[in-house]
Design a protein that fits this description.
By secondary structure, the chain is of the alpha/beta class. The chain is built from 12 helices and 21 strands. The strands form 6 sheets. It has a 5-stranded antiparallel beta sheet, with helices on both faces. Helix 2 (about 25-40) packs antiparallel against helix 12 (about 475-485), helix 3 (about 75-85) crosses helix 9 (about 350-365) and helix 8 (about 330-345) crosses helix 9 (about 350-365). The protein is globular, with a radius of gyration of 25 Å.
Length: about 500
């Protein structure tokens, strides 16, 4: 059966909406009825929630407005708004966040301690020009030619590498990589797969860390399908599949389970490349996060400050730049670190304390407390819940805040950039809708602002849960929003 293109469906729906009776209340009722009818066309299975309101708070559409939905990456709206609302100096270099090194213990062969301060952007890339691990290695090499252990210290935050409700199959991927105050290269191991001779194994290039078994094969032609498997907690990766002999290299992104260990391992490699002899081993320092699922983290004590002086410390770029990346790209790791920074305002730097900071903001926004619950800062947790009305309340409140415009500028723009670069192209909303996307198992979400045909700004929050595997709900959601904008 042929599907009606999104643009045509939107136009037809807009014409139907425009035919509603003229009295204001009847027009509004008809608008909602016709939108509901369009959603019903999605068939059995998907469960929708939608609120559309004007900037003065008048609701134009309210379909299941107080029902609670899995929000996926719409969670990042809460995290980034709280960052704008509570953190200071966002447009200044992130002096508090930079990683540092110090020497401890033995005089002839001291331990090197690499300390993380919650920055998400430390890099060991060969072409790194700012916030580079190599600069810390240089500082150590300039002081000593022999060290004992190389220690990764991420005790600034409790050891909560994955949130409650994280799907286990996501843990091994770049989308679900471990969260740590000591973060390097987005806590991903890059594996470059280059085709070899037909019938032979392709070449694998990657930093030394995981043990990789190469079972892939190079074929003469056909589609390239390279995959990897790794069990959570395992150091073994199995690469399988096929790559065409004429294909461009494929890049795999493998999640890191213990980011502090990985960062210390990479520092050891850089030290040895600079002629520093490492006589010991790579170790880590974690701060245990006591408390089980649904319980508060009871170990709120901040780590003891070492008496040893800092040998060198980096100053990362402004956090404002990272907030753009979080929303435009929907970057999970960076959002998780941001919620822990919010938690540091409350005490421990835990997820729970970060949510407490968000709760204070939502109270100020006047959002209904029953309309949201969070177990993480990115949306990877299936325990998160939001109602369209609560999200719309946050979006509306933000328009009254001095940081509201800056926050909105971090959103993807329809048909232009970020996760909306390929959506709404050719519709009246291209370049006129600014919203955060959300995609997770059986979930689609989109919330933000759009400019209606009349030129006025509409606030909306749109969720679809229980979406069938055979296809997402984004097509019908985009069609409905385009029609509503055209009718207003």
């Amino acid at each position: 059966m042929m599907r009606t293109p999104v643009l045509v469906r939107a136009a037809l729906l807009a014409l139907a909406i425009a035919a509603a009776p003229s009295p204001a209340l009847a027009w509004q009722a008809t608008l909602q009825e016709r939108v509901q009818a369009e959603l019903d066309r999605a068939g059995p299975g998907p469960r929708f929630g939608l609120v559309v309101m004007t900037q003065d708070g008048r609701e134009l559409i309210a379909i299941n407005p107080d029902n609670r939905f899995v929000p996926a990456s719409n969670t990042k709206l809460f995290t980034t708004a709280a960052a704008f609302a509570t953190l200071t100096g966002l447009d200044q270099p992130d002096a508090a966040g930079g990683a540092a090194v110090r020497l401890e213990g033995r005089r002839r062969a001291p331990d090197v301690v690499l300390v993380g301060h919650g920055d998400a952007r430390l890099s060991s890339a060969p072409d790194c020009v700012a916030n580079c691990l190599a600069a810390l290695a240089d500082a150590v090499a300039a002081r000593t030619r022999r060290v004992h252990d190389v220690i990764g210290d991420d005790t600034l935050f409790p050891d909560q590498r994955w949130s409650p409700g994280m799907s286990w199959n996501n843990i091994v991927t770049a989308y679900g990589t471990g969260i740590s105050a000591l973060t390097l290269d987005d806590n991903e191991l890059a594996v470059r797969v280059t085709p070899g001779a037909v019938g032979q194994r392709p070449a694998l290039e990657h930093p030394p860390y995981y043990r990789i078994v190469n079972e892939a094969v190079t074929v003469a032609d056909g589609p390239t399908q390279i995959r990897y498997t790794r069990m959570p907690g395992s150091m073994d990766i199995r690469v399988t599949g096929r790559i065409a002999a004429t294909a461009e290299p494929e890049n795999l992104r493998v999640g890191i389970d213990d980011p502090a260990h990985y960062a210390a391992t990479r520092l050891r490699t850089l030290l040895e490349a600079r002629g520093v002899r490492v006589t010991g081993e790579v170790r880590v320092r974690h701060r245990p996060a006591e408390g089980g699922e649904g319980e508060q983290v009871t170990n709120n004590a901040r780590p003891a400050v070492s008496a040893e002086p800092v040998l060198a410390r980096l100053v990362p770029p402004p956090l404002a730049e990272d907030l753009v990346r979080i929303n435009k790209e929907s970057q999970n790791l960076h959002s998780e670190l941001m919620v822990r920074r919010l938690g540091a305002l409350q005490g421990s730097g835990s997820i729970q304390d970060g949510v407490a900071t968000i709760e204070a903001m939502m109270t100020s926004a006047g959002a209904p407390r029953a309309g949201w619950d969070l177990s993480d800062g990115s949306g990877m947790s299936t325990y998160n819940r939001m109602s369209p009305r609560a999200v719309a309340a946050l979006l509306r409140w933000a328009t009254t805040q001095p940081w509201g415009d800056a926050w909105r500028e971090t959103f993807p723009v329809a048909g232009v950039d970020g996760t909306l670069a390929r959506r709404f192209r050719g519709t009246p909303l291209e370049g006129r809708l600014f919203a955060k996307t959300g995609t997770l198992n059986a979930t689609n979400a989109l919330s933000g602002y759009m400019t209606a045909r009349s030129g006025r700004t509409l606030i909306f929050s749109f969720f679809a849960n229980d979406v069938l595997r055979s296809g997402g709900a984004t097509a019908v959601m985009d069609s409905v929003l385009a029609a509503i904008a055209e009718a207003n």
